[in-house]
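Lab manual, section 2.4: Encoding a predicted structure.

Procedure: take the sequence of the chain (299 residues), apply the prediction step described in section 2.3, and record the output as structure tokens. A sample record is shown.
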Amino acid sequence: MATIVLQTRDLTKRFGSVTAVNQVNLVVYAGEVFGFLGPNGAGKTTTIGMILGLIHPTAGQIEIFGQQVTPHHNAALRRVGALVGSPALIPYLSGRDNLRLLARLYPELPPQRVDEVLALVGLSEAADRKFKAYSTGMKQRLGLAAALLHKPALVVLDEPTNGLDPAGMREMRQFIRALADEGVTVFLSSHLLHEVEQVCDRVAVLNRGQIVTMGRVDELLKGSHEVVKVRVPEPKAAADVLAMLPDVTRVETNGRFVQVHGVSGEQVLSHLTHHGIVPGELRVERSDLEDLFLELTKS
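Recorded output:
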């Protein structure tokens, strides 16, 4: 049975009359990349703040490595690395000296660990440049190096590809996947759905403070998330007919095509022909995580 690294139970945070996070239940297993998705204002950052012991929950519990975490009981966080927002490092120190300063918090680390993480994130050649001279992408890389400095078993990353060019984003995805292959658990918050689909094992989608779905990426994208596209002489009439088909979640017209979500191609063809409509073309496409995300978070 897989080991649970992070678990929340009915995690809730209210700010006055506003409920930012409402009874969130998450389970993250050892060695997986877990994606945490949601539109702006969904409550992702507040949830991460509570997980890291920075924000006190209104209700609910957080356990990391089986130990309860609160702002006053956070021993388990010694085994957690985090990159949340823009790295707040000392601007007039070099990348290497910033990491050396942080390494003093971990006396058990060997001196070569600083150079190891600089190499891991591709900053060896820029290690002696001042942090204030770094580009946004380089600052993100140094923040990641700082998060990995003490060899954490759980890494929490909030938008880690901010400021990276396409090549850097691809390298970051490969790096995150490599971390998981080495046994590190990664909790990845991102709005880049294509990126999450490529790198994550499981995802949770948060909307208006509540989890609307959670599971394996491949399972979430199965079956009911196929998109059937049919070309018909009268799209509006066909769309009205297809809207009556049981289990249909959405019907859209696009020129001479009608797009149907939630049912199979066989169901669409049978239903149309039963109503005297013969499509000139029918094709089935698998919707991606972006389609699922938009479907789950629409108002």
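Check your result against the sample. Residues 166-181 form the longest helix (16 residues).
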